[in-house]
C-alpha cells in the first residue's frame, strides 16, 4: 500500500487502529524520497537517524494501546529557515552552510512535542528572498508536476515535498506570499495565518513585520490539524498575539450559505493569465451555487502594494542581515583587518538576490531618502490595511487569484527581477495588512499545471476561510 500520497488524517486513523506502524509509514516516505529526490530536489538535509528515534517512541506508544495525537507519527518536512536544535539550518545560504542551531523554533518544537516525525529540512530561496527557489545557494527545486518548471518560492521545497509525496505535510514561511504562491504552483493547500498567530521565535528573520510560519498540506483538513498544533501565544516572541486559539477542526463544516464573498476588481487586471481569471470566476460561481453571495468590491490601493512591499521588506532585511558579519557565527572569509574580513565574508557568501535587497533596503533607510521612500511606504501600508478594514464591513471573506499565472519555466524570469517581483501581486497585500490567507487548488490549465485561488479573512478569523475552503474542496 502506497502511504506517501495519503493525508495526515487518513494516516492517523491507520496508525491508531494498528493497520500500519509509524516505522512502515516513515520507511515508505524515505523510499519515496530515494526514488524522486534526485529529480525534485526538495531537501537540503535529511534526518533519518532522528526520525528513527521518534518512530520507535510512537510505535511503542501505539503498542501499549495509548491514544496518539493527530500528527503523532506523521512524517513532515521543515523549511530550512526554521531553527531545529542539532540539525543544520542553512537558510539556503553559503553564509550559514554549516550552522547548527542550539535551540528549536517554537513552531517546530510544538510539532516535536506531538512526536511528528521530521524527515528533513527543505530548500528555499536564500533567506526566503525569491519566488521560484532558484535563489538557493545549493540547488534549484523542480516542480513535481513538470520538472522543467519552478515550484514557486520561497517555500518551494516545502510545496514540492508535499506535491511529490516526499512528506505528508510541511512548514513554510510567508513574507509576501512564500507559502501561498508555491502551494498554487504545486497544487497543494498553503495557509498563511494572521500575523502573530504563530510564534516567529526561531524563524530566521527576513522582514520581521511581515514574516509568518504556516503549513502546506494535501487538503484543508490537514491544514486545520497543523494550525491546531502550531498556533498560540509564545512569551519568546514579543509580536505573538495572546488571542485564544480555537479548535480549527470545528471549522471543517461544508456550508457557505449566506456567506458574503468579496471579489475585488483590482485583482483582475491586465497581465493576469486568461485561464487563471476564468478559473477564479468559476470558483466564484461554484461558491454562489453553494449558497454564498458574491459581492463585487474595490481595494483601491492594491496597485501600490508591490512598491510598498519592496521598500518595507528590503529595509527590514537590511537590518536583520547585519548580524551576518563573520564574527559570532556563520561563515568567515579572512581579510587583512576586521573591515576587509566582513566585506569579503558578505561579498563571497551572500547570493545576488540577497545583496540586491540589502542594497535596496539600505538606500531606502539612508539619510535624505528615509522620508521619501521608507516613511512613505509605511503610510501607504496603513492605507492598504484600511482598504481591507473597509471591505470587511461588507463581506466575510475575499476571493482572489493566488498567482497571476501558473508555474513558469526554470530560468524564464531570472534575468528580470522586476518581472519576478510582480509574481507576488496577489499575495503581498495580505502580509502588508497582517491578515490570514489560504491558497486552495482549483484545477489545472491547458498544460496540466495546477491553479489555485486565494481566500483572505479578517484578522484572527482563520476559521471562516478554513470553512469556505473546506466547503469548496468537499463540493468537488
Overview of the structural elements:
The chain has 476 residues and is α/β, with parallel strands linked by helices. The chain has 15 helices and eleven strands. It has helices at 8-16, 22-40, 48-63, 106-113, 156-163, 180-186, 220-230, 274-289, 305-320, 338-349, 352-365, 370-391, 417-421, 428-433, 462-475; strands spanning 43-46, 75-79, 117-122, 169-173, 189-192, 213-217, 260-264, 293-297, 397-401, 437-444, 450-456. It has an eleven-stranded mixed sheet, sandwiched between helices. The protein is globular, with a radius of gyration of 21 Å. The two termini are 25 Å apart.
Bulk shape: globular
How is the quaternary structure best described? single chain
Total number of beta strands = 11
Helix percent band: 25-40%
Number of helices: 15
Say what the CATH topology of the domain at 8-251 is.
Answer: Amidase signature (AS) enzymes
Q: Specify the biggest β-sheet.
A: 11 strands, mixed
N-to-C span: 25 Å
Beta-strand percentage range = 5-15%
Strand-pairing-aware structural class: alpha/beta
Query: Any guess at the CATH architecture of the domain at 8-251?
Result: Alpha-Beta Complex
* Average predicted local confidence, pLDDT: 97
Amino acid at each position: 500500500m502506497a502511504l506517501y500520497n495519503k493525508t495526515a488524517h487518513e494516516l492517523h486513523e491507520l496508525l491508531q487502529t494498528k493497520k500500519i506502524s509509524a516505522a512502515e509509514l516513515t520507511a515508505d516516505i524515505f523510499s519515496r524520497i530515494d526514488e524522486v529526490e534526485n529529480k525534485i530536489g526538495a531537501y537540503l538535509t535529511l534526518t533519518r537517524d532522528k526520525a528513527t528515534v521518534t518512530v520507535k517512541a510512537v510505535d511503542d506508544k501505539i503498542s501499549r494501546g495509548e491514544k496518539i495525537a493527530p500528527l503523532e507519527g506523521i512524517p513532515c518536512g521543515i523549511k530550512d529557515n526554521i531553527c531545529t536544535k542539532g540539525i543544520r539550518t542553512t537558510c539556503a545560504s553559503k553564509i550559514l552552510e554549516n550552522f547548527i542551531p542550539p535551540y528549536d523554533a517554537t513552531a517546530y518544537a510544538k510539532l516535536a512535542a506531538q512526536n511528528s516525525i521530521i524527515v528533513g529540512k527543505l530548500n528555499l530561496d536564500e533567506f526566503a528572498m525569491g519566488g521560484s527557489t532558484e535563489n538557493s545557494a545549493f540547488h534549484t527545486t523542480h516542480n513535481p508536476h513538470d520538472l522543467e518548471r519552478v515550484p514557486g518560492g520561497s517555500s518551494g521545497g516545502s510545496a514540492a515535498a508535499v506535491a511529490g509525496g516526499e512528506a505528508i505535510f510541511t512548514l513554510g514561511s510567508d513574507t509576501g506570499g512564500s507559502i501561498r504562491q508555491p502551494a498554487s504552483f504545486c497544487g497543494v493547500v498553503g495557509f498563511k495565518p494572521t500575523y502573530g498567530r504563530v510564534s516567529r521565535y526561531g524563524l530566521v528573520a527576513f522582514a520581521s513585520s511581515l514574516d509568518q510560519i504556516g503549513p502546506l498540506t494535501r487538503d484543508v483538513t490537514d491544514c486545520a490539524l497543523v494550525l491546531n498544533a502550531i498556533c498560540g501565544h509564545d512569551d519568546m516572541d514579543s509580536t505573538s498575539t495572546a488571542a485564544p486559539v480555537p479548535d480549527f477542526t470545528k471549522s471543517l463544516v461544508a456550508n457557505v450559505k449566506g456567506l458574503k464573498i468579496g471579489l475585488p476588481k483590482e485583482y483582475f487586471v491586465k497581465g493576469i493569465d486568461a485561464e487563471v481569471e476564468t478559473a477564479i470566476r468559476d470558483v466564484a460561481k461554484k461558491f454562489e451555487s453553494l449558497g454564498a453571495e458574491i459581492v463585487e468590491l474595490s481595494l483601491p490601493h492594491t496597485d501600490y502594494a508591490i512598491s510598498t512591499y519592496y521598500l518595507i521588506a528590503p529595509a527590514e532585511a537590511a537590518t536583520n542581515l547585519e548580524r551576518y558579519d563573520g564574527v559570532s557565527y556563520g561563515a568567515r572569509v579572512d581579510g587583512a583587518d576586521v573591515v576587509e574580513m566582513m566585506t569579503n565574508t558578505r561579498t563571497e557568501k551572500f547570493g545576488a538576490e540577497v545583496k540586491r535587497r540589502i542594497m535596496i533596503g539600505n538606500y531606502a533607510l539612508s539619510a535624505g531618502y528615509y522620508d521619501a521612500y521608507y516613511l512613505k511606504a509605511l503610510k501607504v501600508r496603513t492605507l492598504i490595511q484600511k482598504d481591507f478594514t473597509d471591505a470587511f464591513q461588507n463581506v466575510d471573506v475575499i476571493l482572489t487569484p493566488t498567482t497571476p499565472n501558473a508555474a513558469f519555466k526554470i530560468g524564464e524570469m531570472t534575468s528580470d527581477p522586476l518581472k519576478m517581483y510582480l509574481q507576488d501581486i496577489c499575495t503581498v497585500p495580505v502580509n502588508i495588512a497582517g491578515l490570514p490567507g489560504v491558497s486552495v487548488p482549483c484545477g489545472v490549465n491547458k498544460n496540466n499545471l495546477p491553479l489555485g485561488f486565494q481566500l483572505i479573512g479578517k484578522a484572527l478569523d482563520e476559521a471562516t476561510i478554513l470553512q469556505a475552503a473546506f466547503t469548496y474542496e468537499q463540493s468537488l
